[in-house]
């Protein structure tokens, strides 16, 4: 793990004090902006009435997300996850920076899935196929630079 994820883990320690609902609502707000077209086109309809959990183990932070009324919504800890993805911050950063694909991280057991297998498969396939809008390209490039050369591999076609 490069120095950047270790620094983030240290800086994020106080975030553990915030409830899951606060984390989930903040993530939902960001995802609604970034994935607005995918939501409008029904690409996330598999989430309607279902709850997905995301757990960043080394940060001790959990998210609960669902799709309701055409928006991703954050839920509290009381919303049981139908499917959950868990892993370390480094793995989620690799996925966000498009440095690794979901298949690789799951098959190497660096990300784990629990719960409803069908929902988890839909989510994994969506993550693998999703092409973020051009306005987030600078963020992705910034994450890629901050991750350094560790685990660097040739980009997949179209990326």
Explain this structure.
With 159 residues, the protein is of the alpha+beta class. The chain has one domain: Nonspecific Lipid-transfer Protein, Chain A. The protein has 7 helices and 5 strands. It has a 5-stranded mixed beta sheet. The longest helix is centred in the first third of the chain and has 15 residues. The chain is globular.
Short description:
With 159 residues, this protein is α+β, with helices and mostly antiparallel strands. The chain has 7 helices and 5 strands, in the order H-H-H-E-E-E-E-H-H-E-H-H. The C terminus is likely disordered.
Choose one word for the global shape.
Answer: globular
Kindly identify the CATH topology: Nonspecific Lipid-transfer Protein, Chain A
Report the portion of residues in β strands.
Answer: 15-25%
The number of E-state strands comes to 5
Low-confidence stretches: 154-159
Number of helices: 7
- Largest beta-sheet details: 5 strands, mixed
> How are the strands ordered across the major sheet?
3-2-1-4-5
In CATH terms, the superfamily is: SCP2 sterol-binding domain
The helix/strand order is: HHHEEEEHHEHH
Give the rounded overall mean pLDDT.
85
Span between termini? 23 Å
């Amino acid at each position: 793990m490069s120095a950047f994820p270790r620094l983030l883990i240290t800086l994020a320690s106080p975030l553990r004090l915030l409830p899951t609902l606060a984390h989930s609502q903040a993530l939902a707000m960001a995802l609604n902006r970034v994935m607005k077209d995918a939501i409008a086109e029904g690409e996330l309809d598999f989430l309607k009435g279902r709850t997905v959990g995301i757990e960043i183990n080394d940060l001790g932070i959990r998210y609960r997300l669902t799709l309701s009324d055409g928006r991703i919504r954050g839920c509290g800890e009381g919303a049981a996850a139908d499917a959950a993805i868990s892993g370390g911050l480094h793995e989620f950063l690799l996925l966000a920076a498009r440095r690794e694909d979901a298949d690789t991280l799951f098959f190497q057991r660096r990300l784990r899935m629990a719960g409803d297998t069908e929902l988890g498969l839909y989510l994994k396939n969506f993550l693998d196929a999703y092409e973020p809008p051009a306005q987030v390209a600078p963020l992705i490039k910034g994450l890629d630079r901050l991750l350094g050369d560790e685990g660097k591999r040739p980009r997949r076609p179209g990326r």
